[in-house]
Amino acid sequence: MTELVNEIAAFDGRIAKVAGPVRSGKTEALIRRAAACVAEGCAPEDILIETSTAEAARLARRRLAAALEAAGVADAKAASEAVVIATAQQICLAVLETPEAREATGRAPRVLTPFEYNFFLEDMKTLGTPIRRLRSVLNHFKVQWCALAPEDEWVTPGEERETLDHARRLLTTTGAMLADEAAYLCGTYLQSDAGACARQQFAHVLADDFQNLSLAQQTCLCLLARDQVIVAGNSEETVACATDFPAPEGFDTFDTLRRGVTTFTLETAFGNPNITDFCDSVAAAGNENALTAMTREGVIRDIATVKWNTPDDEFNGVTRYLFAVNAENPEAPQSGICLVAPTKQWAHAFSQMLVKRGFAVSSLGFERLTGDPRDMSRARALVAYTSLNLLADPEDLFAWRAWLGFGNYLTYSDGWNFLLNWCDEHKKGIFDALEAASAARDAGDAEPFPRGERLAERYDAGRELIAAHSARRGHALLAAVGAEGLRDFAALSARIVGDEDAATLYALMRETQFNPVHEDDPRTVRVSSYEQMCGCSYRAVYAVGCVDGYVPARDAFEVVSTDADRARVLEDSRRAFVAGVSKASDTLMFSTFSKAPLELAERTKMQVSRVRMEAGERIATLRPTCFLEQAGAAAPITLGGQALLADMGID
Ligand SMILES: Nc1ncnc2c1ncn2[C@@H]1O[C@H](COP(=O)(O)OP(=O)(O)OP(=O)(O)O)[C@@H](O)[C@H]1O
């Protein structure tokens, strides 16, 4: 085994694929290859390591520093910092950011956050297409972009063409970009004559978890390599953490579609053999061809499923248990413990309970700002974010687009459309239109375009906001934009020293939306989504809320959808589950509960197997995650929650 890793580390051919089951050292092999390149004299900045998430990049950099040291590289820390380690999306955006690419694409790589996307969607509705149809056409575009399919080959004249043109107009006029466009634009640019100078930027491109990338992202990475590309992955570990449209087939066929690919298959899984056996068995239950380990190396320990009565019992019980475990071994870093949660609600409930028990918590995967921009009382975090955006960059046209729309049931998409038409007619820019509307409002004149007065009112309020608060900093600034006390801003508020200006605070907030990472503090227990487990490794993983409907998602059971849809959801959930829980090297515990109030179960999409009355309340009966029993002989042992607590001396 070690021999094979050494072989990969020394591989000097042009193109290789590293396959292997969970925990077989795929990442390790890439890290060792990067270290060997530096040791052989390659400039660290000439090496690109691609990871699926920003957190995986952070951890890879740490592992690389250790590997460089082991390889005898003089200033290992500095070298590890100089190697480019980033997500595919970050890499594509960096390419698109260059003046040459901006010129060639005519686009600015300012990606919309998910909540900003809602404004875009409202503006798309002005076309009059029924919303379901519009969503389906936009989804079609995203699929094609992610497949890097040339637009002229797939856009049909009529509705599709019109929709695409309108989308482009909305985005280009505001200097904005959709997340799924980035790899498409980057790939198209890199393949064009104009992009020749941007191709082959790196001597070595080492792409980890290649199965998680879209075809467009996969292609971009290959185009960036000069001397060598090595991709590592396993399609049974596919998670939608780098794109909404991962293309595991791009990994599976990597060696058959190209000539001269050297394939390495790792066969030893590291860590508690019961854990890797469980993961391999669940993967094999979904796909008989799944890669499984030939040998397993590590200390054997039982893995268990703990059953509680209700969600409250689970929140209480698991956290009390963790408290007792921690008390037994207070020296062990708490960052080695991770609770993987199926939903934001579960993550919050556990985070709160852990804090109550005296733990510090770092949560990852649930930071996406949500709310309803049309309803001010439900848009406070969104307004605060956009206010910071405007203060940081008063020229950001998409921030203005959002700002103007808050609190209106159509987010003033009608007014925005009139404004854009006015710009076209007068050959003027958006600020000219807003200034004209504002001047007319001041003078009591007729609006230059319908809804102009409403937009001018919002525009003036935005100008006032900028004038009033642009000199503020730190907490005073957060208070001024209404962010102080909001849960979505709590982590930022706790982190800042207090003298940060708007640009700094906005950049931090934006980074949390696009490239979130865990706190670099060994004393914080981790709470994570399944997606954010990618690239991580923990001593102990507690998979909480393990009921059908959460894991796998309820759509896997939905009777109204087709068999194929159900199967697709089931298999997507299986891969995310396998990839997530496999990150435990030592201890793995599943936590489940047998009943919940029907209202909670329905609202949060648990799969209800029966409903019965208990003390006048309707109670849903629930089942543990179906994946547990699918593991067959490798399934965990089952314990009652009370028995678990009693074992630890907790009554
Ligand atoms: N040759 C080795 N000897 C001992 N331990 C190893 C070796 N290679 C990897 N490991 C350990 O095994 C674990 C898994 O390694 P790594 O993350 O590189 O595997 P992976 O195949 O990329 O995992 P994943 O399936 O999570 O993507 C890590 O804890 C790592 O330190």
TrEMBL record:
Q: Specify whether GTP-binding is a keyword of the entry.
A: no
* Species, as recorded: Adlercreutzia shanghongiae
Q: What SUPFAM superfamilies has UniProt attached to this entry?
A: P-loop containing nucleoside triphosphate hydrolases (SSF52540)
* Top-level taxon of the source organism: Bacteria
Tell whether DNA-binding is among the UniProt keywords: yes
Q: Cross-referenced PANTHER family, in alphabetical order?
A: ATP-DEPENDENT DNA HELICASE SRS2, UVRD / RECB / PCRA DNA HELICASE FAMILY MEMBER
Instruction: Give the residues the record marks as binding ATP.
Output: 20-27
Q: Which UniProt keywords apply?
A: ATP-binding, DNA-binding, Helicase, Hydrolase, Nucleotide-binding
Pfam families attached to this UniProt entry: UvrD-helicase
Q: Which PROSITE patterns match?
A: UVRD_HELICASE_ATP_BIND (PS51198)
- Domain (UvrD-like helicase ATP-binding): give its ranges: 1-273
Protein name (database record): UvrD-helicase domain-containing protein
